[in-house]
Amino acid sequence: MSLNVKVIIFLLLFFVLGSKMTYAKEWAISSYPLFKIMQEIFKEESLYLIQPPRGEFHFAELSPKEWQRLKGAELVFVVGTEPWASRLIKTLPNEKVLSLLETNEKPVDPHLWFDLERLERKLKTLVELPQVKAKPLYATYYKRSEEFLQRVRTLREAYGTLKKCPQRELYIIGHSVFYYLFKDLSIQERPLIRGHHHGEISAKKLKEVIQLAKERKIKALLLTEREFIKYKKTFEKEGLEILEAWSGDYDRPGDLVTLLEDNLKVFKKALNCP
Question: Which regions in the chain score pLDDT beneath 50?
Answer without folding.
Answer: 7, 10-11, 13-22
